[in-house]
Design a protein that fits this description.
Length: 538
């Protein structure tokens, strides 16, 4: 570790001093093997005679490699290539600095006298292996519930109830059972913490001279966008003699703190008016229901694209929603929602969906579970990676058409929604990103006969994000006026300034007259006198 730190310090000092013989500095990062796979690679510059500084033993060993070395050139720089692993420094071999430089494995960083434009661009667009690690919380958007409301309590045996107009107190009455409610909240994001079996409290029985205690209601919080369906027995059974339940729509939550009663508690029993009438009754049982809850996230704009298209990076650059961004496919395992807030209090909710592939509408790779969150979207944004290098320009158009076709197959209403295309990774100029972006724009215009918005962006450098936000807002709110800064009003001076800059072009007052300067507001009785003297225009 000490030698590795010395190598890093040596490279930093050499870069600051502008060492001409610094051939290559590369950092090859491999995450699969952990810390032992970090392999920084350096070549000793000519400006250093002893390496590391202050280590005379290592420097003497490096200088003793040549048979023609003597005391006069003991301080000459050793021609040595050094590979430093984490925790040790190993001399890999001896070579001349005028040899052809080699590229560090796993790194696009190159410095040398013969840099091409492609290499320079590649240096600044080196892909990050992984963002700062953020754990993705599990996401549950569909669940079955079994709900049982509380039963009503029974009255005390051999106890009569009071008259109808009297307060319902005493042992002749049982308590009511608790009911089950569903309540929406914007603080809940999924059904992860929702129990599948829910039972409310039963009502108490009458005892002594007291009425039975009422059961406490059970209130279950669900996220916004929840659809409630009741599973009703169809009368049929499977081959394994299992009953088949069919869902029936009951309610959906679109507002905060909206409440819906799903199971009503039982009514408490009452005793007879007299022992002869025998008109008392026991407590009634509470309702038992089977529910199916489905979550369709509330969003204004859904980002749809293939895996590794740059959707998560784009949403993280536009809003505060940030999750793990990795190099492998399906690094985004659940949808995320971010919010864009404008100065005029307009809010747009962006939904980052996991990657889709061909056949997603047929539930390939759980495609239907992903596309269900486009149900409430008001606009669709198809994200395409345009940094394709030498591949055909037709691939971008085929990818956009495939994504839109899958969204329409899942829900035909998606064909009526406005849509646009976003090209990502436009900073990778060495991979012909701008060529593929322009080709996609003209191919879409020729195919659909209208101006399909196509915006090129770079989440890494923040390029094109302002135009993308304006385009999304125009798609969702086409009739909403955009805020424009008002021109400042001209200043109206009522009092003369302390110092007048420039020549004074007004009337000069006489020394003997009682005339007020024109920059001051005269009194009403002086206006007639000033006009009669002809000092100001009529």
């Amino acid at each position: 570790a000490t030698h590795w730190a010395s190598v890093a310090a040596m490279a930093t000092a050499a870069a600051a001093a502008g060492g001409a013989a610094m051939r290559r500095v590369g950092l090859g990062r491999r995450l699969r093997g952990g810390l032992a796979e970090w392999r920084p690679r350096f070549v000793v510059p000519e400006s250093f005679g002893v390496w590391p500084p202050g280590d005379s033993a290592f420097g003497a060993r490096g200088c003793s490699s040549s048979s023609s070395s003597s005391a006069s050139n003991a301080g000459a720089p050793p021609d040595v290539g050094i590979v430093a692993d984490a925790g040790q420094a190993v001399v890999s071999g001896w070579g001349r600095l005028d040899e052809e430089p080699q590229r560090a494995e796993g790194s696009a960083l190159w410095s040398g006298p013969d840099q091409s434009a492609k290499q320079v661009v590649e240096v600044f667009t080196t892909e990050d292996v992984e963002s700062f690690p953020r754990m993705q919380r599990p996401f549950v958007d569909r669940i079955w519930l079994e709900i049982k409301a509380g039963n009503g309590g029974d009255p005390l045996p051999n106890a009569v109830r009071k008259q109808a107009n009297a307060p319902q107190k005493g042992a002749g009455y049982g308590g009511h059972g608790g009911s089950v409610f569903l309540k929406s909240s914007h603080l809940i994001e999924s059904f992860l913490d929702v129990p599948q079996i829910i039972k409310a409290n039963h009502g108490g029985d009458g005892a002594d001279t007291n009425r039975g205690r009422h059961g406490k209601d059970f209130c279950l919080q669900v996220p916004l966008g929840t659809i409630v369906r009741q599973r009703v027995y169809s009368g049929e059974k499977t081959e394994e003699k299992r009953r088949i339940f069919l869902p029936q729509f009951r309610y959906q939550f679109l507002r905060h703190e909206d409440t819906y009663l799903v199971a009503r508690g039982g009514v408490g029993g009452i005793g007879p008016q007299s022992f002869r009438k025998r008109d008392g009754r026991l407590g009634t049982p509470g309702q038992r229901v089977r529910l199916e809850l489905e979550l369709r996230l509330l969003n204004d704009c859904a980002f749809v694209g293939l895996p590794n298209a740059g959707k998560t990076s784009l949403v993280a650059a536009l809003s505060r929603a940030h999750t793990r961004i990795g190099p492998e496919e399906y690094s985004t395992t659940r949808p995320h929602v971010g919010v864009i807030r404008f100065r005029d209090r307009v809010e747009i909710r962006l939904c980052d969906l996991p990657g889709l592939k061909q056949g997603a509408s047929e539930d390939k790779d759980m495609g239907r579970r992903i596309l269900r969150h486009t149900y409430r979207s008001r606009a669709l944004v198809f994200v395409v990676d345009v940094a394709r290098g030498e591949r055909s320009a037709q691939e971008t158009l085929d990818e956009v058409e495939m994504l839109r076709a899958e969204a329409i197959k899942f829900d035909p209403l998606n064909a009526q929604k406005p849509w646009m295309v976003v090209g990502t990774k436009c900073d990778s100029l060495h991979r012909d990103a701008l060529y593929h972006l322009d080709s996609l724009h003209f191919r879409l215009r020729a195919r659909y006969g209208l101006e399909v918005p196509v915006v090129g962006t770079s989440s890494r450098f923040g390029l094109g994000l302002t135009r993308l936000v304006r385009t999304i807002r125009q798609l969702i709110f086409p009739d909403l006026l955009e805020p424009i800064r008002r021109l400042p009003a001209e200043r109206f001076v009522l009092h003369p300034p302390g110092v007048l800059h420039g020549p004074y072009e007004g009337h000069l007052p006489s020394l003997g007259g009682q005339w007020t300067p024109p920059l001051l507001v005269p009194a009403p009785e002086d206006v007639v006198k000033i006009k009669s003297q002809g000092l100001i225009d009529q």
